Amino acid sequence: MKTRREFIGHVGIAAGAAALGLGSARRAAARPDRGGDARPAAGDHPAPSHSPGQQGMSILILGGTGFIGPHVVRHALDRGHEITLFNRGRTNTHLFPEVEKLVGDRNSDLTALEGRRWDAVLDNSGYTPHQVGLSVDLLKGATDQYLFTSTRAVYTDFTASVMDEDAPIGPTGLPESEWTAYGPAKVLAERAVEEGFGARTLIVRPPVIVGPGDRSDRFTYWPGRIDAGGDVLVQGDPTDPVQFIDVRDLSEFYIHLLEQQTVGIFNSTGPGAPLSAAELVYGIRAITSSAVSFTWVDWDFLAERGQMPQQQLPFWQPPRGRYLNYGRIDSSRGIAAGLTFRPLAVIAKDTLDWHRSREAGGEFQLRTGLDRATEARLLAEWREAGG
Ligand SMILES: NC(=O)c1ccc[n+]([C@@H]2O[C@H](COP(=O)([O-])OP(=O)(O)OC[C@H]3O[C@@H](n4cnc5c(N)ncnc54)[C@H](OP(=O)(O)O)[C@@H]3O)[C@@H](O)[C@H]2O)c1
To answer: Is 122 within 8 Å of 258 (Cβ atoms)?
Structure first.
């Protein structure tokens, strides 16, 4: 444990480094509680804090009504915090009638936020440096903490031997003026947060976020398909590494970070121990009583037939080339700061229940995954090829 003097020195160094754009600013640290004790740098001390943290905080959420947002709002309300939402008033407007809602467009109109103050801000809806620059400029003097939801996609090259938060981010060989794709734009958005908040920077980089309410269907496809039974095509090799985060685990981590006044940059990949593709599908099978078998089909065989993992089957990647360690992101810093993971069986069961309720609700089309006719055709071709 650092003394208060050592701690203040550490934060001061981090602030100076941030101002200079130095890598050491990316090291996780924690601020002293208001009027309380110094707390350790999250990157230096593996044991999570069990102190209760700040109670009854006022929290502004930029977004809040999409997928992650509602889970965070519910958890924050359960924890006794006071929530304000800021969005355009278009998505899921029926949610949270008891919560204060401010209306505006973060691309151009933040007037509803002017003259206000919050203990913490959670930025869930920032994708570009323009958007994030606007909100950071306005809110850096109006809040103690600003948690920015970034993404694993800031690492465009997943070949570092340790894929922790210090692994290189952003594309190489492309001028920053062309960093407009999702991951590169998030790198620039992260920079806007660091420039505005310096040593107070708090950024989380989730992988694919799964669980009830995930309309991307990247994970949901698997519980749904496995529960349907029969011969299931699974891409790649049974040993391929798979990572994801349940939306409720992420939400709980967010509120924990704010309550603990943590600062730093955190990966947030689960599960807590390495998981192979075989463990994933057999783990999901354990929650159904369907008669099911798995046929593993080579990545290249699928790619040659136009079934690219980023499109039809995007939940994990072949562990080679620039995706070598895509499924091996190191989240030990986040775990030390309090990130925890539900068991796969719980995530799969809850997601399947949600998916079934969605199907029961009427017309419904999965957004990702193979349709059954394509799957059957590919399985037949694979067998014909001797697979
Ligand atoms: N899903 C994943 O697997 C995944 C993985 C990694 C990171 N992420 C990150 O997660 C975040 C998105 O999560 P989410 O959609 O679940 O968030 P959310 O907070 O639940 O929903 C998005 C919110 O943004 C609001 N919004 C959209 N455009 C806006 C604008 N121009 N001005 C003001 N408000 C606006 C929407 O409301 P209105 O439409 O009413 O404005 C909505 O409330 C993103 O930062 C994304 O990069 C997601």
So the answer is: yes
Question: Which residue type does 268 have?
Answer: S
- Cα of 65 vs its chain's centroid, Å: 16
In short, whether 269's Cβ falls inside 6 Å of ligand 1 is no
Burial 114-142 (b: 16+ CB within 10 A, else e): eeeebbbbbbbbbebbebbbbbbebbbee
| Averaged pLDDT, 49-65 | 87
- Give per-residue pLDDT as tens, 184-232: 999 999 999 999 999 999 999 999 999 999 999 999 999 999 999 999 9
- Rounded to two decimals, the pTM is 0.89
User: From ligand 1's centre to the CA of 301, what distance in Å?
Assistant: 35
Pocket flag, ligand 1, residue 302 (CB < 6 Å)? no
Tell me how crowded residue 48 is: count the other CB atoms within 10 A of its CB: 16
Q: How far is the CA of 344 from the centre of ligand 1 (A)?
A: 25
Residue nearest to atom 15 of ligand 1 (CA): 66
Instruction: Average the pLDDT over 329-358 and give the result.
Output: 97
